[in-house]
């Protein structure tokens, strides 16, 4: 498919990354001339941009570009000339256009561009032809930001809401689903949704933390291997969700296929945070593909075949040594524990339906200057159609029910991990699995749960090697709950033992791995800490008493309004949601500020009002029976890829923050987080730092404070829009290391689901306990009136540190809870709080500091909503302190 991939390269560079500076006059020539020159340097000889790509360019555009292009087209038809906008100063956030990022370099030189081009072409031209586009997709943005850090290349100076890279990806992706027959535009191909069904149940079937991590990792590995064949054949832009440019599975695959893989590794580490192998699940439960193919049976066969083959490779490597023990094991090696759900819609059929509803007549020409507005909502309609399918649930192991039925006719012991299937293998207290039932059996395992338990160390390295995604090949084992609980002790202990032990398997990727070389070590520390003298051995008991713990934290996060908000184009505005007209007003105000012609600004406002009315009429034809919003921002390809790319970078940032705070990620999707964490580490309550920092980064992040702008992420010089429209909610559940993990995960999930009963969401629920009956929780808010505010969480941290350092008595918690029954006057309650503080500290300065920090919180409700009733801010802070102590 080299010709098709060459066409993708043309589409990707139909606008060169430095187009904005050609418009400003900093660089001479036309942008099309520069594009053709760049393509020739990449070995693609063309004299003009093909009509198919020009059509893809128009269809990929965001709604603001549709409006601007219509406006300029009208001016040309009236023989007027629209003055160009020739300043490059700010990038506007596409989801919240009032937020701006100031470009580090408003002006760039042709000499600098030439260095970028030389570097890019030298790397790409030395590569095998079939992988050049994949390399361009990964490398081009990273090289740009290497030469021009914190200088996002605008796709359009008139509407600076998205970058060239967002638009280039969307344009290339449109080639998957359109073609020009003669000069007529035709839609082709399919949208394919590949889903790992019942993923929460699959992941929750885990008795140890390692099972939990492997369950999540398996889902991503199987989904990646399912689509890999299509990615190789058609390019990475076929994947709309999750966007692949910084995805660890895609990068690892690319590393294993290109010649200059050291360059891939260098950029992967700097810009994607991939330091070794792809350990973190990053593929989401649902992958959405734009495929040139529309043969439904063929696509399903390929995806399912690849899913099954990937499972067989993994299972054969992990439990294949016991395949001779039983047909049951052999069958489980050949058959995955669950079937993927595949939904395919043929795009030509969807366009036919769309045309009939909207009233589109004859086909339009690919070479037409501006496409009719009716086409701007087709991608949104197509996306909704693709996701409109019946949800399927599969029972764990149901695909091998025939052999399970046979085994069940004889006496058997059920698997102690899933509690569903018959066991056939045994997990022993020395962290070994075999087929011999002896006195030291800790778990009875079915074949599927044996894969989860045994995928570690050498076998993990062998698996990623056989899957073609090994980068370094480090032996890895996910930390146990006892290791998480004892991480702070290990941090202080390792400073004493220094280099006495060598690191075996990598666990936390820190020096404390030396302390946990033996998997049973942390278990013994916990038992010793609990008072079991026989478990103490040579351990430093005083150090253990000071820094030991029996509890760890489960961190979960979920983006607010991701489906109903972002992916539906419903963004916050003046009267509930942002309308097209309001959106364009923000852009018009910006243009006015930078000196754009007044008549152009006026025309934009007039045109956007008419366009909004037209879009409302089109949507009413498409969805006549639905009570819904009709004037939201359209979901166009460029908007969708910008959103997907933002989620990918957020996952990279979350990974950096969590690792820094010694939390261990299990799943990162940019919207969601699942991680396990010590509560306290190296004198800090790191679990609080993890949620505060990841939540703050969701709206604003910069590794250099000079490039920190609300609404943007600046990571190693890359600039991408933050998901500034809505917040992200969290749960922290503090669990005992011996508690059943499925129960703890279930409680954590339940806590996070409570966010739907909070007005505006953007909250964190904190709780602890050793059961599920009548457990309490604390609610704390992350934002007020659309602005980030983590003061409540910071005060929790302050109380914890004061108690830890004995500046405040631990009894403050109980005294404060005791006055919680008072429901009278706010000022009286405030005096009661101050009295509690006075009783529990002898330090007058500490007391006054606490008065000042609490004075505006005492007596206020935390939030509005069903679960917020009668919840007072101060008491929720105190409850949070009690759960984390």
TrEMBL record:
<keyword id="KW-0051">Antiviral defense</keyword>
<protein>
    <submittedName>
        <fullName>CRISPR-associated protein Cmr2</fullName>
    </submittedName>
</protein>
<dbReference type="InterPro" id="IPR038242">
    <property type="entry name" value="Cmr2_N"/>
</dbReference>
<dbReference type="InterPro" id="IPR024615">
    <property type="entry name" value="CRISPR-assoc_Cmr2_N"/>
</dbReference>
<dbReference type="Pfam" id="PF12469">
    <property type="entry name" value="Cmr2_N"/>
</dbReference>
<dbReference type="GO" id="GO:0000166">
    <property type="term" value="F:nucleotide binding"/>
</dbReference>
<dbReference type="Pfam" id="PF22335">
    <property type="entry name" value="Cas10-Cmr2_palm2"/>
</dbReference>
<keyword id="KW-0547">Nucleotide-binding</keyword>
<dbReference type="InterPro" id="IPR054767">
    <property type="entry name" value="Cas10-Cmr2_palm2"/>
</dbReference>
<dbReference type="InterPro" id="IPR043128">
    <property type="entry name" value="Rev_trsase/Diguanyl_cyclase"/>
</dbReference>
<feature type="domain" description="Cas10/Cmr2 second palm">
    <location>
        <begin position="551"/>
        <end position="763"/>
    </location>
</feature>
<dbReference type="GO" id="GO:0051607">
    <property type="term" value="P:defense response to virus"/>
</dbReference>
<feature type="domain" description="CRISPR-associated protein Cmr2 N-terminal">
    <location>
        <begin position="192"/>
        <end position="316"/>
    </location>
</feature>
